[in-house]
């Protein structure tokens, strides 16, 4: 996904990483909320064994992601600080350095969540809290950078 954003939109690799990781984390957070709700409504066994529930979860999460992106584009909220050329120099100081550190940690957490899966409610809750915390950190740093430039 990072390479797709980098090549398709001709942005710097650093900003492609920022956009891809933020997108993954937001989508994972939306799915975690719905999985948590579905666990209470129909039980985890039905979600893991029934193909219909799995596909409905994907469709609902995709529709929410599309609706959210539509609202954000109408309000003109996003990565407006990203330069539109891929050869621009990105100084890794200040906010960019903080974003780089958060992105590296975020990528490791995404890999860890994908590798381990969810074996219990405690691991699910810890994963959900860490994903939401990292989303808030990335959004806060991005808003700070956007206001600064």
UniProtKB/TrEMBL annotation:
Keywords of this entry: Membrane, Transmembrane, Transmembrane helix
Transmembrane segments: 12-40, 52-73, 94-118, 124-144
Membrane found in the keyword field: yes
Superkingdom in the source lineage: Bacteria
Statement: the UniProt record of this protein carries the keyword Membrane: yes
Protein name: Uncharacterized protein
Annotated source species: Paenibacillus mendelii
């Amino acid at each position: 996904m990072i390479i797709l954003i980098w090549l398709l939109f001709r942005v710097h690799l650093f900003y492609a990483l920022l956009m891809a990781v933020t997108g993954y984390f937001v989508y994972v957070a939306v799915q975690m909320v719905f999985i948590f709700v579905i666990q209470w409504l129909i039980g985890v066994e039905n979600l893991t064994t029934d193909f219909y529930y799995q596909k409905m979860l994907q469709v609902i999460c995709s529709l929410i992601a599309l609706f959210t992106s539509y609202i954000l584009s109408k309000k003109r909220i996003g990565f407006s600080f990203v330069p539109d050329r891929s050869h621009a120099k990105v100084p890794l100081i200040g906010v960019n350095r903080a974003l780089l550190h958060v992105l590296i940690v975020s990528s490791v957490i995404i890999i860890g969540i994908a590798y381990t899966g969810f074996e219990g409610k405690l691991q699910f809750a810890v994963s959900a809290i860490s994903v939401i915390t990292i989303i808030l950190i990335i959004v806060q740093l991005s808003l700070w950078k956007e206001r600064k430039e």
